[in-house]
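Quick one, probably user error.
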């Protein structure tokens, strides 16, 4: 099988096709009612694949806007080992997230979302009140949003956005922790930043 044929074969198995107006049914997709976790911005897929291998009783959907990233993850996916994983190529925003049913997700991961450090680019930051509203909509009650960033300003920005609401509770006093949790997974981006001397900020917010 050529690389192109292999990718096509894996797309049939792992990639969820986006269609206008379509809302996915995860019970049909995975063939079970296990909890579903989504990762927004899966990059090269280290986090998604390790998490899925550590937690076979949970279904994972990895999302990335770039087909290059989706291809990288497809190459790593194994038909036998990763039957609890699916991928979606989509630019997630307040509208496109409608492909995910309301109250269907137990946990959402945003691992090193782009920090957009320049003030004139702040409007591109994925975390804003409207986006937290849509994350809340897809999360089940008591569902959790996990976010990590290497960027101090962005960490403060994220914490302030959640502190201004009474529908999410922070796990960590002050909004973030600098300590790795058990089974911490180091992604490509975290590795890159640690080499440059940046220590990550870890945040967890539970939907009330
Ligand atoms: C800084 S990288 C981090 C990747 C990975 N989580 C890691 O830690 O190595 C951000 C990733 O998010 C993706 N991305 C950014 N905005 C997105 C959006 N709105 N919807 C889907 N993917 C997005 C980018 O394509 C990129 O792969």
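Nope, works fine. Designed sequence:
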């Amino acid at each position: 099988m050529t690389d192109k044929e292999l990718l096509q074969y894996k797309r049939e198995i792992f990639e969820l096709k986006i269609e206008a107006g379509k809302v996915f049914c995860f019970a049909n997709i995975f063939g079970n009612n296990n909890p579903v976790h989504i990762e927004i911005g899966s990059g090269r897929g280290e986090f998604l694949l390790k998490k899925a291998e550590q937690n076979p009783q949970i279904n994972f959907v990895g999302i990335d806007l770039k087909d290059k990233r989706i291809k990288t993850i497809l190459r790593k996916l194994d038909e036998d080992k990763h039957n609890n994983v699916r991928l979606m190529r989509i630019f997630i925003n307040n509208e496109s997230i409608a492909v995910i049913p309301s109250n269907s997700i137990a946990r959402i991961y945003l691992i090193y979302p782009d920090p957009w450090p320049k003030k004139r680019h702040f409007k591109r930051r994925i975390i804003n009140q409207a986006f937290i509203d849509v994350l809340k909509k897809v999360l089940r009650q008591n569902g959790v949003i996990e976010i990590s960033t290497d960027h101090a300003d962005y960490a403060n920005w994220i914490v302030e956005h959640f502190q201004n609401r009474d529908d999410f509770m922070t796990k960590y006093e002050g909004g973030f922790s600098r300590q790795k949790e058990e089974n911490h997974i180091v992604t490509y981006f975290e590795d890159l930043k640690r080499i440059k001397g940046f220590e990550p900020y870890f945040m967890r917010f539970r939907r009330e």
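Residues 40-41, 43-44, 63-66, 69, 91-93, 111-112, 114, 126, 187-190 surround S-adenosylmethionine (CB under 6 Å).
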